[in-house]
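hey m, so remember when u said the tokens were messed up on ur end? i reran from scratch. heres the input so u can diff it against urs
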Amino acid sequence: MPRTIWSGAISFGLVTVPIHVQSATEDHSVRFHQYHLEDMGRVRVRKVCETEGREVQQSEIGKGYEWSKDQVIPISDAELSNLPLPTAKAIEIDAFVPLDSVDPIRIGEGYYLAPDGAVAAKPYKLLVQALGRSSKVAVAKYAWSGRERLGLLRVRDDVLVLHSMRWPDEIRSPEELYPPAVDIDGGEIDGALALMETMARDDLEGDEFRDTYTEALEQIIEAKREHRAPPAVPEAEPGQVLDLMAALNASVEQARASRGEADVHEMPAPKKKTAKKEPAKKTAGKKTARRPRSA
């Protein structure tokens, strides 16, 4: 059972749902420590007070806001827990919106919300079923870890899930990343759609959706522990400059072959553009000066 990371309530109009918050995800990444290469002694980061020049214990450390170079405003955990905000004690639902109206770039970590005791069971179930019937998600505000956040509430397997969300002004504009203007042929679009169709899935279950990077790290660690040579690194294929349609055709064939589809058809070639007729050459005459554009 994951540990509770926050306790409070969901505020839905005049309805209050006491809940516990638990992390909905796990991190299986391989962790490394820092070591002194000469003797493999562990290298640690120590917290030292700049004024006294000595290491301090965690019990001596608090939070503070640097108002200026000469003035620091201390802020205690108790003060952060008692901010004059309704969201400091509850997840306040502000609106209900269609899920597809929320840009996925704004959605972050997920947390399970568990009902806190028998008294919370009925209002919790009520909110779950109401969200399910509405086909919408709830947008809420809550305050954790010293800041107010925006959140998205949805239902997953009859359990409420809270996703942290970015505020609108935290999303950078992609305007400077727009690609240069190019012409895309209709046949190339059809080719891309055909490739997408061969790669379509109904779910994300399967052997190809696993963390091969972590597996490779574990193989290297195990090999070094047993004083064996690590697995050979596969040779990278040389880069090839291909015609876009040829690359799409080859990709479709490869995708279908990997699925065991023997009946492979090549996509239709793009239509050839008819050459424009050259205008009749005019007899040379006196050139008139081009007038500059007015500002």
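this time it looks ok to me. The mean pLDDT is 83. if urs says something different then somethings off w ur setup not the seq
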